[in-house]
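Colleagues,

For the teaching module next term, I've prepared a clean inverse folding example: a structure given as tokens, and then the sequence designed for it. I'd like students to try predicting residues themselves before seeing the answer, so please don't circulate the second half yet.
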């Protein structure tokens, strides 16, 4: 039954996956890119759901790092096994799990009321408002280059704690007292950042250890997908709650330690996720062909073998040899056109044929490297222009125009417009009946009380999304500005405090954290490629990828290893080991970034490196595995 639901017609799970699907003990699953690990997990969940209710009323807990991963689970099996998404089971992100079962209960017990919002965006906005004030704390902060980062980094959750303020050690100074009071006012009022939730969760477990026993009793089976993306703090919290040697519950962690590349966790996440005594492996990749799998395997920090199973439509091997493109400094602008020419040649001779969803990408680690080579050195127009859902802009216009245009789905556009309206309500200090700022859900529930007005709002929202999808942003901006007086009349308010936000034509005032997501399209002779960072393309599949050798000297001290070609020369040459222990962690970090980037394409992998670095570090590369192309 699970095969019929989850796999294409006539396909079956192989023995490697069947072993994992049947095994319900505590274990780790290490799975190579494109192995179908999530599909295998879904099959296991489908079978478990058919056995419910479980013994003694226990349930199943499924945790992943992102909402996108949870949405995929719900989309694929939600309608088939709805009981999996009902009590006593829980399917959600690590953040939502911690909020619901630990942070909110403990906070409510401690302060006598629920948190107002656990949200980085709202927290950032409140910090920005503090910085706009004229007091000792804000004045001290505003002379610092990273004033917002300093303010947001304060993580004390109890008034008895001594808060740490970067650069300010005098705890009796007016500036220190002002900043401390601001922080604890936010905590007392229930405005928390995401990291605060984990601090409250840790405090709850320390004060009430029986909470862990209760959670283990409720959740007999615990599955954590994309485990490599969990921070050290998140990993430790899950271990503290669910790791159990008594055999009363079963805890499975699923992911790929080679792909732990998220900023600030390159070392911490995979090293904190140490293998259990029982480890299963999925070595077969349905995404990678043999030639690419052999290259990707060379960059595995866990030495896990990869079997490339991607084939031609006729069942034959994809025999495209990965290309190493070398260029002289004055010809760097010819690298992307050369990649496109290679694609055209392979399509022309039939090496790339009958690809269902053909897609090509140019990727790199660093967007802009300053004194070295970055993505923008190859493509000067490259910019960071895809809006993530949690971006917080300083003008209504920026919310509309910075949403990626054609790359945004209708749902993204809808979310973005609603986010702008919610910000207007916050600026106007408009709250719901519980004295809380509105969320999207609570706003729509409020508007539904007036059926006529709600229908008009829905019609407008639908129209605005359609117009944005057709690049009619100026028209939508004018429409929303005209609608807002009627919108605020729901609360008997007029446009007042939010006037500057609504009328401002600024496009660049982003106050939230910088996103690593980028997306620009280059089209030459009918071949379109997207230009992105490695971090933004993680989890995606492409037909062909060009990986750019970029400068990343941060953290290497006096080391001469600044580019991936220099840090990873022994990986490229099949040797892998490095001698300098101080450099080892930076080489390991680079290996994981390369591993993620190299494992995206199904057919064509290219790597572009300046000829001087090639001659110095890679001239002995195995030409039976790489095709050298000179510009």
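(Answer key — instructors only)
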């Amino acid at each position: 039954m699970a095969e019929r639901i989850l796999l294409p017609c006539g396909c079956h799970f192989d023995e490697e996956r069947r072993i994992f699907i049947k095994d319900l003990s505590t274990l780790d699953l290490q799975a190579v890119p494109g192995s179908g690990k999530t599909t295998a997990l879904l099959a296991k969940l489908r079978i478990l759901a058919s056995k419910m209710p479980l013994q003694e009323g226990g349930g199943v807990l499924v945790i992943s790092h992102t909402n996108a991963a949870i949405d995929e689970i719900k989309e694929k099996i939600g309608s088939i096994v709805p009981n999996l998404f009902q009590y006593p089971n829980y399917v959600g992100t690590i953040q939502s799990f911690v909020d619901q079962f630990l942070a909110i209960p403990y906070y409510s017990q401690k302060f006598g009321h629920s948190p107002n919002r656990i949200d980085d965006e709202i927290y950032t906005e409140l910090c920005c408002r503090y910085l706009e004030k004229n007091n000792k704390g804000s004045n001290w902060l505003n002379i610092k280059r990273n004033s917002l980062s300093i303010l947001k980094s304060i993580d004390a959750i109890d008034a008895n704690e001594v808060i740490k303020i970067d650069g300010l050690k005098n705890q009796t100074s007016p500036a220190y007292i002002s900043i401390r009071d601001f922080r604890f006012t936010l905590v007392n009022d229930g405005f928390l950042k995401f990291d605060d939730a984990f601090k409250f969760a840790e405090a709850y477990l320390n004060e009430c250890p029986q909470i862990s026993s209760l959670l283990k009793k409720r959740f007999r089976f615990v599955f954590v997908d994309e485990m490599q993306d969990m921070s050290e703090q998140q990993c430790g919290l899950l271990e503290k709650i669910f790791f159990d040697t008594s055999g009363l519950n079963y805890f499975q962690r699923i992911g790929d330690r080679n792909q732990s590349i998220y900023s600030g966790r390159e070392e911490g996440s995979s090293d904190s996720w140490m293998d259990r005594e029982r480890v299963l492996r999925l070595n077969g990749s349905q995404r990678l062909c043999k030639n690419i799998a052999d290259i990707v395997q060379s960059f595995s920090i866990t030495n896990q073998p990869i079997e490339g199973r991607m084939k031609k439509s006729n069942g034959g091997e994809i025999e495209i040899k990965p290309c190493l493109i070398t260029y002289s400094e004055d010809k760097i602008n010819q690298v992307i056109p050369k990649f496109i020419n290679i694609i055209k040649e392979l399509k022309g001779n039939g090496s790339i044929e009958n690809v269902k969803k053909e897609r090509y990408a140019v990727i790199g680690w660093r967007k802009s490297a300053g004194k070295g080579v970055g993505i923008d050195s190859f493509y000067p127009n490259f910019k960071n222009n895809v809006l993530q859902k949690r971006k917080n802009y300083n003008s209504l216009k920026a919310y509309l125009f910075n949403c990626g245009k054609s790359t945004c789905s209708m749902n993204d556009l809808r979310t973005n417009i609603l986010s702008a309206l919610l910000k207007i309500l916050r600026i106007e200090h408009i709250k719901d009946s519980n004295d809380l700022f509105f969320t999207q859900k609570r706003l729509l529930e409020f508007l539904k009380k007036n059926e006529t007005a709600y229908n008009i709002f829905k019609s407008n929202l639908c129209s605005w999304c359609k117009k944005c999808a057709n690049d009619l942003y100026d028209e939508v901006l004018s429409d929303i500005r005209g609608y807002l007086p009627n919108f605020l009349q729901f609360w008997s308010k007029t446009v007042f405090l939010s006037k500057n936000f609504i009328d401002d034509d600024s496009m660049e005032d982003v106050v939230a954290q910088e996103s690593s997501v980028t997306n620009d399209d280059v089209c030459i002779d009918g071949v379109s490629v997207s230009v992105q960072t490695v971090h933004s393309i993680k989890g995606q599949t492409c037909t062909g990828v060009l990986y750019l050798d970029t400068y990343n000297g941060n953290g290497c001290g006096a080391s001469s290893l600044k580019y991936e070609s220099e840090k990873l020369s022994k990986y490229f040459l099949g040797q892998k080991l490095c001698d300098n222990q101080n450099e080892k962690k930076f080489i390991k970090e680079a290996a994981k970034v390369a591993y993620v980037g190299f494992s995206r394409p199904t057919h064509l992998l290219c790597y572009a490196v300046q000829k001087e670095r090639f001659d110095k570090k890679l001239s002995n590369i195995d030409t039976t595995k790489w095709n050298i192309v000179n510009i």
